[in-house]
Specification:
alpha/beta, seven-stranded mixed beta sheet, 12 helices, 22 strands, binds MU-OXO-diiron
């Protein structure tokens, strides 16, 4: 029996817990995830988003533990990505809602996904208000957080912000509220989510934080579409989003690399020592041992990114290629960077590494270091000096 969980009077969590999810299109979800959906009960009953399709019945059971599903009047689609809309066709069939409330882009996306022009769409824009009895819902479009269709819903009387993907975490727990779990783990999963999903939209997050501040609304609860619901720790997560989106970066360097016969690895160790000698915090991450999504999470608050690869058939090692492609999409701009490479007979890969760093928005502060086959002591000294150069640049900021 799946139950509804009361969050506030007349506001319930009726989502699904995906305990054993370990991969979310390339993002390693070592703690699983939840697909949060919420129910507001009033003169009109409102469902906020749904869940991934395989969890449809779990959600319907949770609703049924509270009210007959046919008593839902409106469905608010804050976000069309399938982890939140997958259950919609079945749910709409069962509920037969009077309105499906979404943004203009949301309607477009719903039509593209489900090919159902007959559904009762009700398009809203920022500032629109819908009364459901004692409560009023205000809509705030948040395009590209995380898709063009995304929006927030604010329930004024309860000071609840239903925030779609923003402020979420892939974190499966039996608890529903932030105060009931370890805060450091919650913030770690929140950072990982930001780094892997929202990082490219940091400038929009800055604008959104300003918009919400200017609206001068009180927020007592933030209900995201994944993970824990924010109550007491709202100031912590707002501050973290501000820091990550500005971004305010630490005197920290992330070195990621892969190595064929340990020459590149030796270079990585020497660069690390150079950085550490200047008091820089370093994360030295060999790919394969570290998932791409954990590497980008470390880059989230790092001022420097240093990448190394051995040459394989005149190209990067495959895992370096994977990481560079992933990072290029997420665009960790405002960082400084450098490259290193061990090659056999063609030194061209160093240049390619540099180009990839620049394509990610990272500013090169060195032409990098290439070493033929196995590094000599003098090569390792050069690597150590590269670490010092990066450190000095970080310390000068
Ligand atoms: Fe959780 Fe962008 O979907």
């Amino acid at each position: 029996m799946n139950n509804a969980y009361k969050i506030r009077d007349n506001f319930y969590w009726i989502g699904a817990i995906d305990w054993n999810l370990r991969d979310f299109h390339g993002y390693s979800t070592e703690k699983g995830s939840t697909y949060n959906a919420f129910l507001l009960t009033d003169q009109r009953n409102v469902l906020f988003d749904t869940v991934k399709a395989p969890f449809s019945n779990e959600m319907l059971e949770r609703i049924s533990s509270l009210i007959d599903v046919s008593k839902i009047d409106y469905i608010v689609v804050n976000h069309v990505e399938m982890d939140h809309s997958g259950a919609l066709p079945l749910v709409i069939e069962r509920i037969k809602p009077e309105k499906i409330i979404c943004s203009a882009k949301g309607k477009e996306a719903l039509l593209s996904h489900f090919k159902r022009p007959d559904w009762p769409y009700h398009v809203v824009k920022t500032g629109d208000v819908i009364n459901v009895g004692k409560k009023n819902m205000t809509f705030i479009e948040t395009p590209m957080l995380h898709w063009p269709d995304s929006m927030f819903t604010y329930i004024k009387e309860d000071e609840i912000l239903v925030s779609s993907d923003a402020f979420g975490q892939h974190f499966a727990t039996s608890e529903r509220l932030d105060v009931d779990v370890d805060l450091s783990e919650l913030m770690r999963q929140t950072a990982k989510y930001y780094a892997n999903i929202l990082l490219p939209y940091s400038n929009l997050i800055q604008k959104l934080l300003k918009t919400v501040k200017d609206m001068n609304i009180k927020i007592d609860l933030i209900a995201p579409d994944h993970g824990l619901i924010w109550t007491k720790n709202i100031p912590d997560v707002i501050k973290a989003y501000d820091d990550w989106s500005v971004p305010r970066l630490n005197k920290k360097a992330v070195i990621f690399f892969d190595t064929m016969w340990k020459s590149t690895e030796k270079m990585a160790y020497s660069i690390t020592e150079g950085l550490m000698s200047q008091g820089i915090s370093v994360k030295m991450m060999k790919l394969g041992e570290n998932n791409r999504s954990d590497v980008i999470t470390e880059i989230l608050d790092a001022g420097a990114v240093i990448v190394g690869s051995s040459t394989l058939n005149n190209e990067f090692l495959p895992m370096v290629s994977d990481m560079l492609t992933y990072m290029k999409g997420l665009r960790p701009v405002n960082r400084i960077g450098a490259s290193f490479n061990s090659f056999g007979w063609n030194p061209g890969v160093l240049k390619k590494l540099n180009m990839e760093l620049e394509a990610s928005g990272i500013k090169l502060i060195s032409e990098g270091i290439g070493v033929k086959y196995v590094p000599e002591q003098s090569d390792l000294e050069n690597c150590y000096q590269l670490g010092i150069k990066v450190a000095k640049e970080l310390n000068s900021k």
